[in-house]
User: What shape does this take?
Amino acid sequence: MNTQDGKIALITGGSRGLGRSMALHLARQGTGVILTYRSNRTEADAVVAEIAKLGGRAASLQLDTAIVAGFDEFIARLRETLTKTWGRDRFNFLVNNAGVGVHASFAETSEVQFDELMNVHLKGVFFLTQKLLPLIVDGGRIVNVSSGLARFSLPGYAAYASMKGAIEVLTKYLAKELGARKITVNVLAPGAIETDFGGGQVRDNSEVNRFVAANTALGRAGLPDDIGGAIAMLLSPDGGWITGQRIEASGGMFL
Assistant: This one.
């Protein structure tokens, strides 16, 4: 059943992993999808084709969320895509999902690694969202993707988790400031998920996978569809009274 006919979502980093699952779940609800990719157009186009097979409409656009200087040009292409594909000039949902992973101890984290994480996970989210505000309809929704690592601590993720912690604070401020436009802003924080993120450790390393399962209430590591489903739930018609909240989708990891 299509419950979101006429709605359009922009998902950054939507060509693979969690973003791909988000795009497919939203498409099944009848939501139009614009997904961004950094370098692999083939993967992005494959998701667009899969959505078309579901009877939905989708488009893909190249975007490096770490390069703020490229945002104006991206928004021009986004406006063109909205007009060409949907006959619209604005969209409903923004999911700030694009991310990179760095695993390094605090003592060994370099300035280059720190800056890469900051540019993608904090600076990029801050300024892309800012520039997109005129294109988001009143009554729209924003979801910022964080991490369970902002709640619990595992060695090697000090810089990464710090950026996610900052995003969680930013989300509260956005919820407050955008409330006048009836735009909700929330955080979705996945736990450990079986994807290729961070070198695919949770998916491919059996020891890591067992460790995660043993410390998760539901007894397994997460799957991309667990997160895609959570995004679809948050962006459903029934999610409109939730704002300024951190929702963790981790299966009960480290309770």
Summary: Residues 175 and 203 are 34 Å apart (CA to CA). The helical segments are 17-28, 41-53, 71-86, 111-132, 158-178, 201-204, 206-214, 224-234. The chain has a mean pLDDT of 95.
